Automatic annotation (TrEMBL):
Keywords linked to the UniProt accession: ATP-binding, Kinase, Nucleotide-binding, Transferase
Protein name per UniProt: S-methyl-5-thioribose kinase
GO biological process: methionine biosynthetic process
Gene Ontology MF terms in the entry: ATP binding; S-methyl-5-thioribose kinase activity
Length: 403
């Protein structure tokens, strides 16, 4: 399907009100509804609709034929069907960790879901130095429950292949293949490097042939290893939090890929929050300690829960052979560490930035912060098999720059 053939009609706020009243029927016909477009992501339109009287509310998320970031990215609105299906599946595998889905409309390419406006986006909360003591527990549970139960360890292999078909997501995968695995590692025209960071990137990233080779190996791993059903874009902007709850949103990049991808992605984004604190503020040691502790606990709890889930849920006979569990877990962690490195590099060199770094207003501090992340990213890509514990990963972070 070409860009021109896709239905492009993004609803106006007024049309969304009519839609939820008439087509979907969640509110009373005479309810006084207020609608506001609140999307701040790179791809979709997100409308919050609320009834001023009853205080009931919901979210309508609509997919257009191109990304909001740039119409260079032509992306199938089928991502909305994938998002709906995976939210329903994750709601069963990891109850309480995703928003409820009320309705999916394949003609309008929209999904209607629970409004989480009592929650805060984790990236914003961390930039405001808020702490969430249960975050690592919650995220390690979510990761293990969604990754192990969708893998060949647990599922009948024919049933799993049906899921692989259903979650084939070529356009969204192509974005990741390009923006995460390819463009950042050579002088691609779409890259956008901060002036003070440029000479480091030219010499230490683009000039390093061993690094290029390792990214090629990792790209082929991403292209070919249909290991588990991934969220596919699990950064701190895809997580909503309160002091007691964690909800994972926005799984439109979902597909069958290497299980380490989601784990590595979230760790890298914790490192961006940590970097923001180190390079913009004095006297935030307690907050920085919290973030490093969250990374360490996330990795170690993931390992612990993974071992339990593997032992309790694995149905594949040969996976019980002595040594296989250790082999499997080690390779997942190796992939995760590599993805930490890729994500650290691509958010600095590539087109899709993170506010944790772009908001550092002092130019020298920003360059130093970015170079620290790139140095760490390179280490994690090149030496990915050396980090098998939360402590090891945190020690590597502490060993770089002003960290
Ligand atoms: C064109 S989309 C750019 C980035 O935003 C998404 O959240 C993904 O991370 C993607 O790489
Ligand atoms: Mg998103």
């Amino acid at each position: 399907m070409t860009k021109q053939e896709w239905p492009a009609a993004i609803m106006t706020e007024t049309e969304v009100v009519t839609y939820v009243k008439e087509a979907f029927g969640f509110f009373n016909k005479d309810a006084r509804l207020v609608c506001k477009e609140i999307g701040d992501g790179n791809l979709n339109y997100v409308f919050r609709v609320h009834d001023e009287e009853s205080k009931q509310s919901l979210i309508v998320k609509q997919a257009g034929p191109v990304s909001r970031l740039s119409d260079e990215f032509v992306v199938s609105p089928d991502r909305n069907r994938i998002e709906t299906d995976i939210l329903r599946l994750q709601g069963k595998l990891a109850p309480g960790f995703v928003p409820k889905v009320y309705h999916y409309d394949g003609d309008k390419n929209c999904v209607v879901m629970e409004d989480l406006s009592d929650f805060t986006i984790l990236r914003t909360a961390l930039l405001n130095r808020q702490q969430f003591p249960q975050l690592a527990e919650h995220l390690s549970t979510f990761l293990v429950e969604t990754l192990v139960s969708t893998s060949d360890l647990v599922l009948d292999h024919k049933a799993k292949k049906e899921l692989v078909k259903s979650y084939t997501n070529p356009e969204l995968c192509e974005i990741t293949e390009d923006l995460v695995y390819t463009e950042p590692f050579f002088p691609h025209p779409r890259n956008d490097v901060f002036q003070g960071t440029k000479s480091f990137v030219e010499k230490e990233i683009w000039g390093d042939r061993q690094l290029a080779l390792e990214t090629a190996k990792l790209k082929f791993q991403f292209l070919t290893n249909a290991q588990a059903l991934l969220h596919g874009d699990l950064h701190t902007g895809s997580i909503f939090v309160t002091s007691t709850e964690t909800k994972v949103i926005d799984p439109e990049f979902a597909f069958y890929g290497p299980a380490g991808y989601d784990i590595g992605n979230i760790i890298a984004n914790f490192i961006f929050a940590y970097t923001n604190s180190v390079y913009t503020s004095e006297g935030e040691e307690a907050f920085q300690h919290y973030l490093l502790d969250t990374i360490e606990t996330l990795v170690d709890q993931f390992k612990k829960k993974f071992i339990t889930a593997f032992q309790e849920k694995t149905t594949e006979r040969v996976a019980h052979y002595e040594g296989f569990l250790e082999h499997y877990l080690q390779s997942v962690l190796e992939d995760a560490v590599a993805v930490v490195g890729l994500e650290l590099c691509r958010r600095i060199i590539g087109i899709a930035k993170v506010v944790d770094l772009t908001s550092i207003s002092d130019s020298q501090a920003r360059s130093e912060a970015e170079i620290a992340c790139l140095t760490l990213g390179k280490t994690f890509i090149l030496n990915r098999s050396d980090y098998q514990t939360g402590h090891g990963i945190v020690e590597a972070i502490r060993g770089v720059g002003s960290y």
